[in-house]
C-alpha cells in the first residue's frame, strides 16, 4: 500500500449502514459489513500522476452473515461481487466502510495481524488452474496454511493433510502428486481442502464451480454443501449462476454496479422478486425444460451494464429499467424492507414490483434489435 | 463410404435431400501420445430455417465438429473422413479454394470469444465490410454502408459512429453482436454458433439468443448451435444432438430429448443441474467421475465407467460391446445409443414420480 492510499483512507469517512439485513442482533453475526467501498483510482500522467477518476467497483454495501449461514452474492460481471469477496478476506484494502469479522474490526488491519483472522476466514478461488502453485505437491499446498499459522495437529501435518484430502473426496495417496496431474474438478477439491485446513468459520467461495464442466459442477456443489452441514461453516457464495446460488444459499443478495439492490431469503427472492433487475435476471435464466420456455415471460433489457467509472445518478439501474421515472434519476433509492414481507426482504427501488412473478402477461422488450 | 456401411445406422431422412447432411464424420488428430479421435462417426441432418443444438462437455468433440463443417481442418494434421453434404455439394473432399468461396457466404460462424475472434488492429466496421467485399464486387463505400446496416440490425446504438470504433471500445455483449453482424453480412444459409453466449452475462445472453432466433426467422438460415448448457438449447434449438467421447449418444427433437431422455448420460446432465424451481432440500445427483480421454476411450460404451445402470444390462455388454444408435420405441426420429432395454429404462425412471423408487434405484446403483 502506498502513502497516497493511506491518506485516502484517512480522509474517507465511514458512513454508518442504513439497512438492517436481518432481525439478528449485530453482535450475533459472524460477519458484519457496513458501507463497504472500494474505489480503484484511475491515474493519468507519467511523472506526476494525478487521479482523474475512480472505478467504483463496490460503492457502499451492507450485509451480514450469521454463523453457519450461507449468503449468496449474485450479479453480472462487473457488478463488484468478486471485489466484495476480496475485501472481506482483505486481499484488497477497502476505501471506506467497515468489515467486522467475529466481533473484531478487520477493515484496516495490517497484513501481519490479518493472518490471525485468516485462520477463521478462508477463500476458494474461481480458477482451479491458476490458484494452485504448479511447483508444489498437493501435500505442501494443503499443509502450508497450517505451517504458516504454527498449527501442529497431534497426528502430524502429513496425516492431517491426507485426512483433508479424504474429506474432499480425493485419494490420500495422491499426497505427493503435483496439481498438473489432476483434472479441473479434482483441483478445485484441492483448493477446498486447503481452505478447510484451518477449520475456518467462514469461507468466501468466489465462483467455485463456474470453471468446471456441467457434470462436475454438481459434485463440487454437493461437497461444499456436505462440508457446510458437517462443520457448520458459514459461506459467502459468489456466483453468477442463479440456479446454483438458489441451491446453495439460504439468503441471497443481488448486486448491480457496486450496490446491493435486493437481499432476501431464498424463497422470497426467487418467487417474489421486488426489484426490476432481479426480476429481469430471473427471467433471463435459460431452463432446460421446453414447457418452461413457452410459459415464461420475456424481459429483455437494452444494452449492457453501464460503466462503474461514471455510474448513472440516482438509481443505477434506471438506464435499463422499464419502470424508471423522473424520481429515479435524482434520488438514490435506499435499501428498505419490502411492504408486507415479514422475513426481511430488502429492496432498493422506488417502484418495487408487485409480489408475484406470474402477474404480468406481456413481454417487456427494451432491446431495439428485437422485434 | 456409403451410409449403409457406417458403424452407426443412417438416420431416418425425408425423401428430398436435406439442406445439410453430415454422414459418418470423423476427425482424428495424430499426436505423440496416440491417435486422438475427437469426432468418431457423427451423422446428422438439418433443414433450412431449423436449429440444431449440439450438446456435450469439454472434449466431447462438439467444437471440432463445427470446425469441420467450415473446412477449418484443411491444411492441418487432422485426418477428416466421412461426408458433409451442403445443398448437394460435398465439403470434406472440396479443395481449400472451393471452401473459401463458401466460407462467410454460404457457411459462416459465430465464435465463442469475440475479443480474440475480432482483430484488434482494425475497426469493427472495416472487418465487417471486408467480409462483405470478399464475396461481393462492391466499392468500399457500399460495403461500409452495408456494415452500418448490419450493426443497426443487431441493435448497436449509433451504428454510423460505432462503425469506426475498435473492438476494445465495445463491451462484451456489443462485441458478440458485432461478430453476429459480421457472420450475417453475406446472408449465409448455414450459421454455426460455437458457444455464442458462454462468455456473456445472463441478461445479455438472453438478448443474443433472441437476436439469433429473430435473425434466423428473417433470413431463413439453418443454425447449428454448440453449447454445454441444456438451458440454451431448450431455448433455441429444434433438434438436439448429445455428444460424448466424440460420438453421438442421443439425437432427437428438443422435446423428445429433454422431456423423455433415453440415455443415462442425458439423465445425468439433466439431474446434475439445479433448476430455478427445483426442490432445494434435495441433493444434486452428479455424474460420478470425469469425461474420458479421447486417446483410449473405454471399450464398449464410452460412458460405462461413469454409468450407474450398467448392472441392469445382462452379461456385461456395456463394457464389451459399443451400443449402436437405435430408434427409441414409440419415437419417430429419437435415437439413443444405450444397451438398456426399454423395460429396464421404464423401471429405472418409473420411480421419478412421487413414490421415489427411481431415486432409490439410482442411489443403490451408485
UniProtKB/TrEMBL annotation, chain B:
Q: List GO molecular-function terms, semicolon-separated.
A: ATP binding; ATP hydrolysis activity
- Here the segments flagged for biased composition (Low complexity) are 357-366
SMART domains hit by this protein: AAA (SM00382)
In terms of Pfam families, this protein maps to:
ABC_tran, oligo_HPY
Membrane topology (UniProt): Peripheral membrane protein
**Domain ABC transporter: start-end pairs:** 22-270
Q: Where is this region: Disordered?
A: 345-366
Q: Which GO terms describe its cellular component?
A: plasma membrane
Spell out the Basic and acidic residues composition-biased ranges: 345-355
Q: Does the keyword Electron transport apply?
A: no
Keyword check for Lyase:
no
Q: Which UniProt keywords apply?
A: ATP-binding, Cell membrane, Membrane, Nucleotide-binding, Transport
Q: What is the annotated localization of this protein?
A: Cell membrane
Q: Sorted alphabetically, which CDD domains does this protein's record hold?
A: ABC_NikE_OppD_transporters
Please list the GO biological process terms of this entry. peptide transport
Instruction: State the family it belongs to.
Output: Belongs to the ABC transporter superfamily.
- PANTHER family in alphabetical order: DIPEPTIDE TRANSPORT ATP-BINDING PROTEIN DPPD (PTHR43297:SF2), OLIGOPEPTIDE TRANSPORT ATP-BINDING PROTEIN APPD (PTHR43297)
Could you identify this protein by its name? Peptide ABC transporter ATP-binding protein
Organism the protein comes from: Streptomyces cahuitamycinicus
Origin organism lineage:
Bacteria, Bacillati, Actinomycetota, Actinomycetes, Kitasatosporales
Amino acid at each position: 500500500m502506498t502513502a497516497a492510499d493511506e491518506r485516502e483512507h484517512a480522509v474517507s469517512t465511514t458512513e454508518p449502514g442504513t439497512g438492517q439485513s436481518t432481525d439478528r442482533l449485530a453482535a450475533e453475526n459472524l460477519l458484519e459489513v457496513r458501507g463497504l467501498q472500494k474505489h480503484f483510482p484511475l491515474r493519468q500522467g507519467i511523472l506526476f500522476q494525478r487521479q482523474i477518476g475512480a472505478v467504483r467497483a463496490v460503492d457502499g454495501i451492507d450485509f451480514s452473515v450469521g454463523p453457519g449461514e450461507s449468503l449468496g452474492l449474485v450479479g453480472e460481471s462487473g457488478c463488484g461481487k468478486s471485489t466484495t469477496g476480496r475485501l472481506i478476506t482483505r486481499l484488497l484494502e477497502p476505501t471506506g466502510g467497515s468489515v467486522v469479522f467475529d466481533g473484531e474490526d478487520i477493515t484496516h488491519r495490517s497484513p501481519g495481524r490479518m493472518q490471525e483472522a485468516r485462520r477463521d476466514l478462508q477463500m476458494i478461488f474461481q480458477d482451479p488452474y491458476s490458484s494452485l502453485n504448479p511447483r508444489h505437491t498437493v501435500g505442501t499446498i494443503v499443509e502450508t496454511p497450517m505451517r504458516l499459522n504454527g498449527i501442529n495437529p497431534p497426528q502430524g501435518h502429513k496425516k492431517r493433510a491426507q485426512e483433508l484430502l479424504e474429506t474432499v473426496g480425493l485419494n490420500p495417496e495422491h499426497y505427493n502428486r503435483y496439481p498438473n496431474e489432476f483434472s479441473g474438478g479434482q483441483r478445485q477439491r484441492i483448493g477446498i481442502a486447503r481452505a478447510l485446513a484451518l477449520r475456518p468459520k467462514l469461507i468466501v467461495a468466489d465462483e467455485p464451480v463456474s470453471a468446471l464442466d456441467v457434470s462436475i459442477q454438481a459434485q463440487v456443489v454437493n461437497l461444499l454443501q456436505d462440508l457446510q452441514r458437517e462443520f457448520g461453516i458459514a459461506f459467502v457464495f459468489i456466483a453468477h449462476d442463479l440456479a446454483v446460488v438458489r441451491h446453495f444459499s439460504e439468503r441471497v443478495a443481488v448486486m448491480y454496479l457496486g450496490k446491493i439492490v435486493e437481499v432476501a431469503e431464498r424463497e422470497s427472492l426467487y418467487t417474489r422478486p421486488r426489484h426490476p433487475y432481479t426480476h429481469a435476471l430471473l427471467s433471463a435464466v435459460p431452463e432446460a425444460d421446453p414447457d418452461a420456455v413457452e410459459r415464461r415471460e420475456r424481459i429483455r433489457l437494452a444494452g449492457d451494464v453501464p460503466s462503474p467509472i461514471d455510474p448513472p445518478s440516482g438509481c443505477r439501474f434506471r438506464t435499463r429499467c422499464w419502470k424508471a421515472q423522473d424520481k429515479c434519476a435524482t434520488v438514490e433509492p435506499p435499501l428498505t424492507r419490502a411492504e408486507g414481507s415479514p422475513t426481511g426482504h430488502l429492496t432498493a427501488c422506488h417502484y418495487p414490483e408487485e409480489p408475484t412473478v406470474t402477474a404480468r402477461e406481456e413481454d417487456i422488450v427494451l432491446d431495439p434489435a428485437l422485434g | 463410404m456409403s451410409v449403409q456401411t457406417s458403424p452407426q445406422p443412417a438416420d431416418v431422412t425425408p425423401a428430398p435431400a436435406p439442406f445439410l447432411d453430415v454422414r459418418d464424420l470423423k476427425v482424428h488428430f495424430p499426436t505423440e501420445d496416440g491417435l486422438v479421435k475427437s469426432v468418431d462417426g457423427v451423422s446428422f441432418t438439418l433443414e433450412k430455417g431449423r436449429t440444431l443444438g449440439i450438446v456435450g462437455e469439454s472434449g466431447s468433440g462438439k467444437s471440432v465438429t463445427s470446425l469441420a463443417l467450415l473446412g477449418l481442418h484443411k491444411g492441418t494434421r487432422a485426418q477428416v473422413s466421412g461426408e458433409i453434404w451442403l445443398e448437394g455439394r460435398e465439403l470434406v473432399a472440396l479443395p481449400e479454394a472451393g471452401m473459401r468461396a463458401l466460407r462467410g457466404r454460404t457457411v459462416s460462424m459465430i465464435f465463442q470469444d469475440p475479443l480474440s475472434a475480432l482483430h484488434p488492429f482494425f475497426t469493427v466496421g472495416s472487418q465487417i465490410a471486408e467480409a462483405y467485399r470478399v464475396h461481393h464486387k462492391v466499392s468500399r463505400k457500399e460495403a461500409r454502408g452495408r456494415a452500418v446496416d448490419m450493426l443497426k440490425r443487431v441493435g448497436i446504438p449509433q451504428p454510423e459512429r460505432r462503425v469506426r470504433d475498435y473492438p476494445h471500445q465495445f463491451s462484451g455483449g456489443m462485441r458478440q453482436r458485432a461478430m453476429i453482424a459480421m457472420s450475417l453480412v453475406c446472408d449465409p444459409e448455414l450459421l454455426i454458433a460455437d458457444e455464442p453466449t458462454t462468455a456473456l452475462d445472463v441478461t445479455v445472453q438472453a438478448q443474443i439468443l433472441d437476436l439469433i432466433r429473430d435473425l434466423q426467422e428473417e433470413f431463413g438460415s439453418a443454425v447449428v448451435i454448440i453449447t454445454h448448457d441444456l438451458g440454451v438449447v431448450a431455448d433455441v434449438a429444434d433438434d438436439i444432438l448429445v455428444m460424448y467421447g466424440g460420438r453421438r449418444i442421443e439425437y432427437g427433437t428438443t422435446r423428445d430429448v429433454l422431456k423423455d431422455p433415453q440415455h443415462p448420460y442425458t439423465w445425468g446432465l439433466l439431474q446434475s443441474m439445479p433448476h430455478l424451481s427445483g426442490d432445494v432440500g434435495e441433493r444434486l445427483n452428479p455424474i460420478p467421475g470425469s469425461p474420458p480421454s479421447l486417446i483410449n476411450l473405454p471399450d464398449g460404451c464410452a460412458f460405462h465407467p461413469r454409468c450407474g445402470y450398467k448392472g441392469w444390462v445382462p452379461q456385461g455388454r456395456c463394457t464389451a460391446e459399443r451400443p449402436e444408435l437405435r430408434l427409441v420405441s414409440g419415437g419417430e426420429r429419437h435415437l439413443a445409443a444405450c444397451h438398456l432395454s426399454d423395460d429396464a429404462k421404464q423401471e429405472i425412471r418409473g420411480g421419478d414420480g412421487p413414490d421415489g423408487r427411481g431415486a432409490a434405484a439410482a442411489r443403490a446403483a451408485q
